[in-house]
Specification:
Structural class: alpha/beta
CATH topology of the largest domain: Dihydrodipicolinate Reductase, domain 2
Strand order of the largest sheet: 8-9-10-7-11-12-13-14
CATH superfamily of the largest domain: Dihydrodipicolinate Reductase, domain 2
Largest sheet: 8 strands, mixed
CATH class of the largest domain: Alpha Beta
Strand content: 25-35%
Number of helices: 10
Shape: globular
Distance between the termini: 36 Å
Helix content: 25-40%
CATH architecture of the largest domain: 2-Layer Sandwich
């Protein structure tokens, strides 16, 4: 698209994440315009549009996808619906920004990737954490050898979401701690060390048919071992952290998955100790800029279909090692 023309975006559904992930950054990123929202509940769509000043409303997802005045679609639906509506959007000729997890399992992600391939559309997973400079800086520090070769890592994302009607407790919608919050630590470790060679161990604690807590130990092709812990409801109610242990030092990161909330990198290495702080520019703003640039300038999409397929393959392997089936 020409850069002087704004990208007109439509939203499928009225999920809360749409406000933080799209509507707020759209006010800060030039060249994008949230033009319409669609919901299967027209009254809910009208209320959402009025609250957030979205100009138009469609009473169905299909109506939005056939709207000639829409260039791109943002999909914040439950994970189990991502594949269906991402494929429908691609086939309708729309660019797609789909919330993480890209799909609920690797087979579904591969189907989306096959449709996206050669379509000419930008199809991007909204894994916002990747786009923040913190993670590029982490890769630089690891590659510098300042703490020696990393041999073990620990990545944790535990939050308190009481068992209730929240979609994260619904198996058929792709619920469970690993697919929701566990997505971040797994993706963070693969971003640092490459793909996993195998899952050494995994254990899940179940409630309402989903994993309320899951622990896994991963072996990476680089030789590093990583422990991942995710939970929606456990004795460890709130824990978000990343620790990398090297041969000659250690790296600890606070708030690694939402670095704009005041993340710090603490390094103890051959050059002594220091703390690095990072920008508070939101991850979601970086993400929307990347989506815009891919559409208007043809820049590479780093959180692309191939990366999403690899991620879902790893998650499916963790579920299998824990004695569970992939999410439906």
């Amino acid at each position: 698209m020409p850069e002087h023309e704004p990208i007109r975006i439509g939203i499928l559904g009225t999920a809360r994440i749409g406000y933080e992930a799209l509507l707020v950054p759209a006010q800060q990123v030039q060249g994008v315009h949230v033009a319409v929202i669609a919901s299967r509940d027209p009254a809910r769509a009208r209320a959402y549009a009025a609250r957030y000043r979205i100009p138009r409303v469609h009473s169905s997802y299909e109506a939005l996808l056939t709207d000639p005045d829409i260039d791109a679609v943002y999909i914040p639906l439950p994970a189990a619906l991502h594949a269906e509506w991402t494929i429908a959007a691609i086939e309708a000729g729309k660019h797609v920004l789909c919330e993480k997890p890209f799909t609920s399992n690797a087979e579904a992600a591969a189907r989306v990737a096959s449709v996206a391939d050669g379509s000419g559309q930008v199809v991007m997973e909204a894994y916002h954490t990747h786009h923040h400079p913190l993670h590029a800086r982490l890769r630089e520090i690891v590659a510098s050898g300042e703490v020696g070769q990393i041999h073990t890592a620990s990545a944790t994302f535990c939050i308190p979401i009481p068992p209730n009607r929240d979609i994260r407790w619904n198996l058929t919608l792709g619920g469970g701690s690993l697919l929701d919050v566990g997505y971040y630590p797994v993706r963070t470790l693969t971003g640092l060390f490459g793909q996993t060679s195998h899952v050494e161990h995994a254990k899940a604690w179940l409630q309402q048919g989903v994993d309320r807590r899951l622990e896994a130990t991963l072996r990476f092709d680089s030789g590093a071992t990583g422990k991942v812990v995710s939970s929606l409801w456990s004795r460890q109610p709130l824990n978000l952290g990343l620790t990398l242990q090297g041969q000659t030092g250690q790296i600890k990161v606070t708030r690694p998955y939402h670095p704009h909330q005041g993340s710090r990198i603490q390094i103890k290495g051959i050059d002594g100790q220091r703390t690095e702080r990072t920008t508070r520019k939101p991850t979601y703003t970086y993400q929307l800029e990347a989506f815009r640039n891919a559409i208007q300038r043809g820049t590479d999409v780093e959180t692309n279909c191939a990366a999403a397929v690899r991620q879902l393959q790893t998650l499916d392997a963790i579920y299998a090692a824990a004695g569970l089936q992939p999410r439906p």
